[in-house]
Amino acid sequence: MNSEENRIISIIDFISHGLLAVSGVMILLMAFAATYGVARRYILNNPEPYSYEISMMLLLWCFVLSVAALQKQQRHLRGDFILNRLPRNVRFFVNAILSPLLALLCGAVLAWKGWEAAMFSLKIGERSMSAWSEPLFPVKAVIPVGYAFLFIVALAQFIQGMHALIRKSDRRGET
Fold first, then answer.
1. 2 to each of 98, 165, 168, how far by Cα in Å?
2. Alpha-carbon distance 158 to 162, whole Å?
3. pLDDT tens digits along 43-78
4. How far apart are CA 33 and CA 81, in angstroms?
5. Tens of pLDDT along 106-120?
6. Nearest to 28 by CA among 64, 73, 4, 61
7. Which pTM value belongs to this model?
8. Among residues 33, 52, 82, 118, which one has the fewest Cβ atoms lying within 10 Å of its Cβ?
C-alpha cells in the first residue's frame, strides 16, 4: 500500500474508534437513565416514563455506531468454529474477500433503506406514541450514518483483501 492508502486507512481507523468510544459513552448513559428510572420508581414511589425510552434510543444508537468498528476489528459475528476447520486459502478468501463483500452489500442496503425511512419520518413529522412523544427522525437518522460508515469500512477491507489476493497470486507466479 502507498502512503495515501495508509492515510485513508488511518482516518477510517480513527473514525471507527471514535464511534466505538461514543457507543461506550452511550452505554454509560443508558446505565444512568435506567438507574434513575429505577430509583424514582422504587425509592421515591414516583415512576417516570422517559428513562426507558431514552435507554432504547441510546441502545439503537450504540449498536448502529459500533457495528463499523466491530467490522474493522473483525470481531463481528462469524462462524469461527467452522472457519477454523477450512483450508488456509479458503479461510483467507472468506476473511479477506467474502466477509467484507457481504458487509459491503449489507451496509449499502441498510444505509439506503435507513435513509429512506429517516427522510419519510422527517417528512411526516413522525413522533413516538409514548407519553413523551419525541420526534423519531433523530432516532432514525443515525441508522444510515452508522451503516454508511460500515459500507466505507467494508469497502476498505475488500480493497485490502483484493490487494493481498493479487500479491499472493503474483508471488505464486514468481516461483
1. 24, 17, 17
2. 6
3. 888 888 788 888 888 999 999 999 988 888 877 666
4. 38
5. 999 999 999 999 999
6. 61
7. 0.84
8. 82
